[in-house]
Amino acid sequence: MTDLEEIFPGDNDLAHRLRGFDWSGTPLGSPETWSSNLRSALGEIVGHTDRSGQAECASGTRGTPGKPDRRVPHSQLQHTVRNILAVTRSLVRRTAANSETAEEMASHLEGRLDALARVQNFALLSSDQTVDLEYLVAEEIVFYNAREGEQVFLSGPPIKLSDRAAELFGLAIHELATNAVKFGALTSSSGHISIHWELDEAASPSHLRFHWEETDVDIAGEEPARQGYGFELLQSMLAYELRAQTSLRLEPDGLKCTIEMPLTSKIVPTGA
């Protein structure tokens, strides 16, 4: 079995495309040089679309009584394949452009691919390929061993995100959490993060306002949040794809971030 067959196993369309791709011409280089963590992160993306037969085209017999058919229709799989390839290509290119060393690039890229894989898993487990905002944020926070209810506090109305909106939001939360681990509230047990969101239905159109507020952080002597790809994602990609306006403020007691965006078909209050 070749390296690519080990990293991207399976017989689905995505696995075939990734095995046939010429990685040597990318900033990642030849697969033989990839670290074990990078191999795992890339493999997870394919694994999530192939787990439990979910990547099979829906044809033939349906699910048995009490066991719904979990297979993804061919059109949905094609959409997932194209989307993941596009996002992965963008992550590789932009991470390479904002990394000073190969080691730094590998570290950042592994974390971002892990975050992308988690979001893809959430979307594929949903019957309508949407992701609950609170669940998305909570799972990303748990990944960093933060204690919800003790160190991190979440609140807000139920909101569903489309798979694409969830990818962007998941990556944004990943960047905020990574920054908090390195420089902010998650550097010690004394720091706190309040993550809350609300609907502004008086606006036209209605808006979702999302807040990430760190407190009890001693930032004296600490490096400020780096204006690399992570915060480019927050400020430009969210604006382009979700029409979001993002405010980032480094205050004496910690980072404050507000993301405001109109409600669209990609961002829907539950029950709307």
TrEMBL record:
Residues 77-158 form the Signal transduction histidine kinase HWE region domain. It holds the Pfam family HWE_HK. It is an enzyme of class 2 (transferase). Its EC number is 2.7.13.3. Residues 49-73 are annotated as: Disordered. It catalyses: ATP + protein L-histidine = ADP + protein N-phospho-L-histidine. GO terms for molecular function: ATP binding; protein histidine kinase activity. The keyword DNA-binding does not apply. Keywords: ATP-binding, Kinase, Nucleotide-binding, Phosphoprotein, Transferase. This is histidine kinase. It comes from Faunimonas pinastri. The lineage of its organism: Bacteria, Pseudomonadati, Pseudomonadota, Alphaproteobacteria, Hyphomicrobiales.
